[in-house]
Amino acid sequence: MILNNSFLSLFALVSTLSTVLAFPSYGSLAGLSEREIDHLVARLPQALPPNPPGPLKFNGTKLVQRPRAPLEASSQGRHSRTCPDSTPSRPTDTFPETESPPQPRSSKPSRRASNMDSGTARFVTYAAHLVDGNLVTDLLSIGGKTRKTGQDTGPPAIIGGLNTHAVFEGDASMTRGDDFFGDNHSFNQTLFDQFVDYSNRFGGGFYNLTVAAELRHQRIQESIATNPKFDFTSPRFFTAYAESTFPYTFFVDGRITNRTTAGLDMTNATLFFRDSKFPADFWRPPAPTGPAGIIDIFLAYPIAAGRNVGEVNTYTPDPTSADFNNFCLLYTNFVNQTVKGLYPNPKGVLRRNLILNLGFFYDGIDGAGCTELFPYGQL
């Protein structure tokens, strides 16, 4: 059992040993005190992060390989859905929910099953790892929070899974409730019914770009009207619109060659979102793909990045947030505020691995024209 900070001050040796024994090799170090990090880093198995995998050797459409065993349905205390906002394109389609894959491995399933382009997969993978992973062991706990991550050491440390609110997950999801209402990870039948309704009304029974724009606007307005803590600033400002592209981009069979007009039918949507399964005889997209149409969805109903201010219907723009007019601010704020805030003064192997992982993260947007930042120096 991990002792709290008051016990640490009285029983340094005992607490150090108990922390090392109980702290999981895949738990996040983010937010721990410098003293706690020094104790842990010296005793954790240390890994040198390998280079990310390159582009797929074959990047055309092909039959998606099913897992050897079906995913287990979520039950109390076990969250098999790792990303509440884009559930089907998650690592657990290949990994057991309690496995802790090294980061290069965790980006492979999304690319192999959905043919996600290498840059997008790398950007998302390393963003999650930098805030939720253990950067010394180079492991990340996927899925929801489990007892295998050990006892919390207290905020602002993040020992949870990828569905930790406001890190990898955010408000106004298409099929998951806002965190304010107490459950941001479970499939929400009411919201999925709305997904189906909008697909019928605006897409003739298919979820397509037109439906995506209408439903995205509706979900934002619903959160503004019901969630006093609704936050629609970066990075959620970007991921919400990206999430809206996934169903017609990644979940439509790759043998449908006209991807511009492709739409997701409701039978397969039910399998993906409710049942967390690929349809039988499903083929991945015919070419490496990113969030196609993301700007079109935003321009249909433009809104400034912002948040509710303690009450519903108090949405206030935040001029300091990144938006589609300043994408590089997303990268800058993530590095200088989020990562730097979690790791203000890293040393040794932790500093080395932060530098390497930040480099891998930047490589995912290397062509976006952003200036690479080195908050911890260079190796």
From TrEMBL:
Q: Which family does it belong to?
A: Belongs to the chloroperoxidase family.
Cofactor(s) needed: heme b
Q: Which residues form the Heme haloperoxidase family profile domain?
A: 111-299
The segment annotated Disordered runs over 66-116
Q: Does the keyword Transport apply?
A: no
From the UniProt annotation, give the residues forming the signal peptide: 1-22
Supply the InterPro entries for this chain: Chloroperoxidase, Chloroperoxidase-like_sf
Compositional bias (Polar residues) spans?
Answer: 73-97
Molecular function terms in GO for this entry? metal ion binding; peroxidase activity
What is the protein's given name? Heme haloperoxidase family profile domain-containing protein
Instruction: Enumerate the PANTHER family for this protein.
Output: HEME HALOPEROXIDASE FAMILY PROFILE DOMAIN-CONTAINING PROTEIN, STERIGMATOCYSTIN BIOSYNTHESIS PEROXIDASE STCC-RELATED
Write down a Pfam family by its short name: Peroxidase_2
Keyword line: Heme, Iron, Metal-binding, Oxidoreductase, Peroxidase, Signal
Q: What is the lineage of its organism?
A: Eukaryota, Fungi, Dikarya, Basidiomycota, Agaricomycotina
Determine if Heme is one of this entry's keywords.
yes
